[in-house]
Design a protein that fits this description.
Layout (H helix, E strand, L loop, with lengths): L1 E4 L6 H11 L10 H14 L13 E4 L1 H7 L1 H25 L16
Parallel strand pairs: 1-2
Length: about 110
């Protein structure tokens, strides 16, 4: 379980910083919605966070998300959409292979490669 405290900052950038720390994103993480989609896409494709074969993948727990949604409503919705899209992608890949996909680096470590 990965806990993200999204209500501590007042900006979208603050939330990206919190996500980068909590999710152990690489230094090249761009702190924007496109970069979030890319890094979570790497997790969906290459695995990470849960090495057990029966693992369901990372569980994200957001606290104070309503504060973020109030100050940055568009970004808050897009973050949720990205997470939902990448979770579906990971589920499809897992169903197609019968296991967690582990063909590349663990966690989101590729950054533009």
């Amino acid at each position: 379980m990965i806990r993200l405290e999204t209500g501590q900052g007042n900006t979208e950038r603050d939330t990206h910083r919190a996500m980068a720390v909590a999710l152990d994103f690489p230094d090249c993480y761009g702190h924007n919605l496109d970069a979030l989609n890319d890094c979570l896409g790497d997790v969906a494709c290459y695995g990470g966070y849960d090495d057990a074969p029966e693992g369901a993948g990372p569980v994200l727990v957001f606290t104070d998300y309503d504060r973020f949604a109030t100050t940055c409503p568009r970004a808050a919705q897009v973050v949720l959409d990205i997470i939902a899209d990448q979770a579906r992608r990971a589920a499809v890949l897992r169903a197609a292979t019968g296991r967690t996909v582990r063909a590349g680096p663990s966690r989101a470590r590729r950054c533009g490669t």
